[in-house]
Amino acid sequence: MHNADLLARSRSAVWHPCTQMKRHETLPLVPIRRGEGVWLYDCDGKRYLDSVSSWWVNLFGHSNPRINAAITDQLGKLEHVMLAGFTHEPVVQLSESLRELAPAGLGHCFYGSDGASATEIALKMSAHYWRNSGKPHKTHFLSLQNSYHGETLGALSVTDVALFKDAYGALILQNATVPSPDSRNAAEGEDAQSFALRCAAQLETHLRQHHANIAALIVEPLVQGAAGMAMYHPAYLRRARELCDQYRVHLIADEIAVGMGRTGTMFACEQAGNQLGLPASGEAAVALSPSGGKLERGGITPDFLLLSKGITGGYLPLSIVMTTDMVYQAFYADEVARGFLHSHSYTGNPLACRAALATLDIFASDNVLHSNRGKAAYLNRIAAPLREHPKVKNFRNTGMIWAFEVDTPHADFARRCFSLALGHELLLRPMGNTVYFMPPYVISTNEIDFLVEQTLKTIERLC
Questions:
Q1: Cα distance between residue 198 and residue 179, in whole Å
Q2: What does DSSP assign to residue 60?
Q3: Cα atoms in the Cβ-side hemisphere of radius 13 Å centred on 207
Q4: Helices 89-101, 350-365: crossing angle, 10 deg rounding
Q5: At 56, which helix (H) or strand (E)?
Q6: Residue 198 to residue 194: CA distance in whole angstroms
Q7: In this predicted model, what pLDDT tens digit does every residue of 426-461 receive, in sequence order?
Q8: How far apart are CA 287 and CA 295, in angstroms?
Q9: What is the CATH number of the domain that holds 374?
Q10: Same-domain check for residues 320 and 418
Q11: Hey, how many other C-beta atoms are within 10 angstroms of the C-beta on 454?
């Protein structure tokens, strides 16, 4: 099948997500036939470097042979069984593996299907915990300005995106927001850490006044993705953990996008409190927090850790909410009404769990986090011409995430940039005038060269 055939059929039958379909009258869909490594290939054989990991999910390249083999092996054993009243080896192995990797104290895994599901689960679990604990009035949530946590109704209640609020505001619970520590908003001469702590002081003011009715604070640790890859100092996370403990509010760490090595450590929470944003060295000193979390030297343990996107290497839908024994025990009772009342038909699907286990195996066997540090340093070095371009502002990097703004008069910059980049064999998907890279970890130095060179050519043509 050629591109034109697939395009015509897709426009007729498929309603694409978060898309104004009328735009595809002039901006054609990109028909993809296959993928290999960092490359996507359309039906006519043209290739595109997938610099955004197909909506931030692909870690180890398209059609990865090791993940393929794991799923193929599982297909011959068990494709699915419901997790209510049943269990299976892949879900047990995955839960045990994550317990060993995650911040100390997160010993229980609850499974969902996608990132928004994980947000819904955590919000419900937090409010239900307080109800079971004799505080049924703690039903409100707090999030950062410009936050994004998904598009289901519960997730939208803690998502601060004007487009969604305008469209669905009448359907959702209106929760409060506090200032984002996005370092782009720091005052002139104010460093990122000072600004983060100033924002944390505003968080403290809000909690002091409203904590009696707040169940949880939800944050995207270190990088707010949909806010334009807003990056902030890890000191904010440390202070947020302390304040949540002080005012008896749960801390939900939404690592759906930033977990699984994206920020340079397996989980972004590991970097909390270090001035350089690096994981603590030596044995962690652990202390139980008043709300059931555990504070580690350097990192923090949230009350809920949300994972999805990269957990299966981008292969299959899966999300996980990890939580503490204190939260788990609040639901452990004879009465059904005290149990956590939430389920998905495909919860803990064996195929998805095997893909996740294969993903974790690659992290371990290939020393991925160490390798990524070298790749990040290389990209930052060769990106000097892009960073110094007169139209490029706020070039920034955290782990394997890069972003910058383009000074442009074009209101339709994102569409123009996307279209021009395709002509340079490159998939870029700007948010407003923010261009970002979040490539698969298997990207080579030659492919990094290509990514930077073609992005620079695209920016030159746009400007």
A1: 10
A2: S
A3: 25
A4: 40
A5: helix 53-56
A6: 6
A7: 999 999 999 999 999 999 999 999 999 999 999 999
A8: 6
A9: 3.90.1150.10
A10: no
A11: 19
